[in-house]
């Protein structure tokens, strides 16, 4: 299981009053924060999550890194919508919070909600990306609400920070009938890679050989077992039971064959004595 310290930065700018995401851009973020916290702490009990805002006069840390959701919830209640977002300042403050983590073995990750136009230029963002990459800090962007204005800048940022290992992610969520947290929950941001590898191994016999169909999905029409963890686990247990049954049948068949051979040998010896 991945051991991480994660700082979540919410966008609390005036754009968050917009209701194009149910029930509003701001509330949609708060609902997603809970999902992120649950997924992170459930994947590893030593994972910690912190929370901060990036709009207004300055970025504000609402909760230090913690395993207690009550602290996150208290921070959410103290936040308010104001001003314009400052992504560079927000990420820099998040880096300071991660530097002060108690467990230095934790990998460092920042999850940033972007729901308002990014005012910083590409050059400023690129410089920040270089620093983050140098310090082994991964960044996940949840890009929603202002995709047309922000996507190209975020893609340029990701091209610098991502070294090809896919440990940082850019997820763009358009307006639609689905809730923001439902869409984010299906993405690589919240996938437990160790769990996915385990699930893929469990489906290996039915999903095809490595490099084949199994690499594109997990069998049984499930592209991502995290979309329905309970069903995925039920399928995996069923497969394990089936494999156990086959092993028992094979062992019983081998035992029967050995007994038959022993009887046959005994009969041959008796005929030779006669």
TrEMBL record:
Species for this entry: Pichia membranifaciens
InterPro entries tied to this protein: PSMD4, UIM_dom, VWF_A, vWFA_dom_sf
Residue segments, region Disordered: 237-274
Family assignment from sequence similarity: Belongs to the proteasome subunit S5A family.
Entry keyword set: Proteasome
PANTHER family the record matches: 26S PROTEASOME NON-ATPASE REGULATORY SUBUNIT 4
Name of the protein: VWFA domain-containing protein
Any one Gene Ontology cellular component term annotated for this protein: nucleus
GO terms, molecular function: K48-linked polyubiquitin modification-dependent protein binding
Classification via Gene3D superfamilies: 1.10.287.3990, von Willebrand factor, type A domain
